[in-house]
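Changelog entry

Holo records now carry the ligand SMILES as an explicit input line rather than a separate metadata file. Below, a converted record for zinc ion, shown in the new format.
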Amino acid sequence: MKDNNIMIYTDSHSHIYDSTFDGEVPDVVERSIAAGVTRIFLPAVDSKSHASLFALANKYPENCFPMIGVHPTALNDNINYKDELLVVEQYLRNPPVDKFYAIGEVGLDLYWSKDYLREQLEVFRAQIELSLLYDLPLSIHTREAWGEMVKVLSDYKGRGLRGVIHSYSGSLEIYNIIKSYGDFVFGLSGVVTYKNSGISKDILHMDICDIVLETDAPYLPPTPFRGKRNESAYIPYICTRVAEIKSLSVSDVASITTSNTRRIFGV
Ligand SMILES: [Zn+2]
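Structure line, unchanged by the conversion:
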């Protein structure tokens, strides 16, 4: 991992504004920049964490790029779930930051509960419409809902959909289907560094121009940090593993995945 000073890494999905980083955020950003990870995209989750997300984005406008959206699990068991969507619409009309770079993270999650699929579908579709209306990419979360996800996205085929399928864990078949629906890239996380993760043989068949890197910090730390808190400074570990799998140099993977994020997010 020499040559960090000339490499620009991008973390396409990081929650370093999360409360687990309270009091340490400037250090976390400094460590990230020192590791060459100078571009960090921040997905929103729900109204409880918006203030810390906006504060971070406003403090580091050159390095931290905010998104706005409602995470699917924020809708589970929430009688006021429609209010979360209203808040997002309000922020899009009057941004409390320079600008939003994506609608995210949004999507479907049937891992924790299958009882709120109707609410999740309603809010996900509304947020896809917002992404088209504001011409912003989507940052899409999918957990145990790939069939439902493909079905929803198919309804928007040909309408200019674009975005990131975050922490991609689907099959090669789903990768090809989603690619046919719009300009999508696929986020690879620390999971690629886990032995027996099973994803490496799929990555072999994915086009490097479809790949972006992400930490999903504080979750999914790469080896050798498993069991610890993840942070954006660990992107080079993920990059190195992807370079190994694809038989490319680390600097090529860093620069190609960074340019893929420029294409999707426009920055
Ligand atoms: Zn996330």
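Spot-checked after migration. Residues 13, 15, 43, 105, 216 surround zinc ion (CB under 6 Å). The chain has one domain: 4-265.
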